[in-house]
């Protein structure tokens, strides 16, 4: 589903990802961890072509990401759901409208949108918050809404960058359970996190990055 072959990415003189080789199969749930500056966010950004690799090849859902023309990027991104801190809910729109937006852009009919948004809100456990504004949700509920938005387009891959960063430990575990459920339904899930508690005892693959290199791999 996601393959990196000898991928290098630098910012000016700073090498963020160094000759990384990685293979993630369809349906896997994988954690990326490592110290601040190790390259976790950069690795995720390379997958959805927010960054372009300097060297090497990246294949995602059959797309050769490094070779994609700009006009093809939206087609790649339809396969990918994003849970990133700098990609917040629109504050003036309800939870429902925040999630429906993705489908409206794809010109899905309103009837269909209603069913899909309702199903996805049920899956993430906040259907009763459908008409609320983001500011009236708790941190955990907001994160559930962000996850619903990422999932509503039915992506094959879900990328999450520090998805529990601002949450208390119990709420974080609730979000982890949700990611596991999503993964069980067949979505490939990739989570970048500092938080060891998130992957401890999951039995899932954990990739340790340091200075842009894969230092080691283990099971959580
Ligand atoms: N836009 C940018 N311009 C210049 N350097 C950058 C940029 N983005 C990241 N870097 C550098 O690339 C390296 C990897 O950064 P990255 O954000 O991928 O690390 P990270 O593992 O996600 O860190 P954190 O845990 O703090 O989020 C760091 O040295 C960082 O300073
Ligand atoms: Mg980061």
Topology:
Blueprint: E1 2-11, E2 14-24, E3 29-33, H1 40-47, E4 55-60, E5 63-64, H2 73-77, E6 80-83, H3 95-105, H4 110-124, H5 139-151, E7 157-161, H6 169-184, E8 188-192, H7 196-199, E9 205-210, E10 213-219
Parallel strand pairs: 3-8, 3-9, 6-7, 7-8
Antiparallel strand pairs: 1-2, 1-4, 4-5, 9-10
Helix pairs in contact: 3-4, 3-5, 4-5
Bound molecules: adenosine-5'-triphosphate (ATP) and magnesium ion (MG).
Residues 40-41, 161 line the site of magnesium ion (MG).
Describe the fold and architecture:
This protein has about 220 residues and is an alpha/beta fold. The chain has 2 domains: about 1-80 and about 160-220, Rossmann fold; about 85-155, no CATH class. It is about 35% helix and about 30% strand. The chain has 7 helices and 10 strands. Strands 6-7-8-3-9-10 form a 6-stranded mixed sheet, sandwiched between helices. Helix 3 packs parallel to helix 5 (about 140-150) and helix 4 (about 110-125) crosses helix 5. It is globular, with a radius of gyration of 17 Å. The model has no long low-confidence stretch (mean pLDDT about 95). It binds adenosine-5'-triphosphate and magnesium ion (MG).
Keywords:
about 220 residues; Rossmann fold; 6-stranded mixed β-sheet; 4-stranded antiparallel β-sheet; 7 helices; globular; binds adenosine-5'-triphosphate; binds magnesium ion
A few lines on this structure:
The chain is of the alpha/beta class and 220 residues long.
């Amino acid at each position: 589903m996601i393959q990196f072959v000898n991928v290098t990415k630098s910012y000016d003189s700073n090498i963020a990802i160094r000759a990384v080789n990685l293979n993630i199969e369809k349906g896997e749930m994988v954690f990326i961890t490592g110290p601040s500056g190790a390259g976790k966010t950069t690795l995720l950004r390379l997958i959805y072509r927010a960054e372009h690799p300097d060297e090497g090849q990246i294949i995602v859902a059959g797309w050769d990401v490094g070779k994609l023309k700009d006009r093809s990027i939206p087609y790649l991104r339809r396969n990918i759901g994003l849970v990133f801190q700098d990609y917040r809910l629109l504050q003036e729109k309800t939870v429902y409208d925040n999630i429906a937006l993705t489908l409206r852009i794809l010109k899905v009919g309103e009837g269909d949108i209603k069913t899909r948004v309702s199903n996805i809100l049920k899956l993430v456990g906040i259907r009763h918050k459908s008409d609320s504004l983001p500011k009236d949700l708790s941190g955990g509920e907001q994160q559930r809404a962000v996850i619903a938005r990422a999932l509503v387009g039915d992506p094959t891959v879900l990328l999450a960058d520090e998805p529990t960063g601002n949450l208390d430990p119990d709420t974080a575990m609730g979000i982890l359970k949700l990611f596991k459920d999503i993964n069980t339904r067949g979505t490939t899930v990739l989570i970048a996190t500092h938080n060891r508690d998130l992957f401890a005892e999951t039995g899932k693959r954990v990739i340790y990055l340091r200075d842009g290199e894969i230092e080691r791999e283990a099971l959580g």
